[in-house]
Design goal:
By secondary structure, the chain is α/β, with parallel strands linked by helices. It contains 8 helices and 13 strands. The chain is about 25% helix and about 30% strand. Strand 8, helix 4 and strand 9 form a beta-alpha-beta unit. The relative contact order is 0.11.
Length: about 260
């Protein structure tokens, strides 16, 4: 079968279209005829050797895909040949940039008839991450205010829609007016261009100095540190990435007096 294989990591990775043997599903796995594969920032970082550790070269990248079940491995009861599915693979495995991919059965979801395979392939990674960040770890409730950084990115656009549907007020940051207009169309109420505005000052202004209930942060570094200052007492910050390449510093005293919590 044909697959995209990475031969060398780096800022300009060596990606090649090659012929490799067809994979076989093991226990708890499903072989999927890949119709579309998602492209995430995590895939870019993986190809640069900066995500989830370095895998032995060469390997087939790709964390998520949508397609049709070809074969179910031993012990799989929920999926049968012909089922339309979308899902992710474990970061240690990758393998979705191929005509066929082996995927864990427990990480698959059915594809609604209303979604194309292309739309379905772009759904699992970002929407599940956003849902977990907002509801499971962030404990978002109706009427709260949430600050979503990088709101025009994959997880960001998903988070804006989920937060708005949950009855939250959304403050969104992005790096350009074009991106912010798109985010407004998804439901963001307050827009902050972090390239020209200080997001901390704007958040305080838009909340009458109180701060927000929840922050979704994926940049790291100074953005993480300033985001803590955006929280009201008892506020929560959920971190799910360090796209800047810089890790934010955290002092326990930053959390104690205002009774803040940080998760990820």
């Amino acid at each position: 079968m044909k697959a995209i294989q990475i031969r060398e990591l780096g800022e300009d990775p060596d990606l090649r279209l090659v012929e490799i043997p067809e994979p076989r599903p093991g226990a708890g796995e499903v072989l999927v005829d890949v119709k579309a594969a998602g492209v995430n920032y995590a895939d870019v970082l993986m190809c640069r050797g900066r995500y989830g550790g370095r895998r032995p070269l060469p390997f087939v990248p790709g964390f998520e895909a949508a397609g049709v079940v070809l074969q179910a491995g031993p012990g799989v009861e929920n999926w049968r040949p012909g089922h339309r599915v979308m899902g992710t693979v474990l970061r240690e495995t990758c393998g979705c940039y191929a005509e066929k991919a082996v995927m864990p059965a427990w990480l698959l979801l059915p594809v609604p008839q209303s979604l194309s395979f292309e739309e379905a392939a772009a759904f699992p990674e970002v929407f599940i991450t956003a849902y977990l960040a907002l509801h499971v770890f962030g404990r978002l409730t109706p009427g709260e205010t949430v600050l979503i950084h990088a709101a025009a990115g994959g997880v960001g656009t998903a988070a804006v829609q989920i937060a708005r549907a949950a009855g939250a007020r959304v403050i969104a940051t992005a790096s350009s007016e074009e991106k912010l207009l798109r985010v407004r169309g998804l439901g963001a109420e307050v827009l902050i261009n972090y390239a020209t505005q200080d997001f901390l000052d704007e958040v305080k202004k838009q909340t009458d100095g109180r701060g927000v209930d929840l922050v979704l942060e994926s940049v790291g570094g100074e953005v993480f540190e300033k985001s803590l200052q955006c929280l009201r007492p008892l506020g929560r910050l959920i971190t799910y990435g360090t796209s800047s390449g810089s890790v934010g510093a955290l002092k326990t005293t930053d959390l104690q007096r205002p009774s803040l919590s940080v998760g990820g």
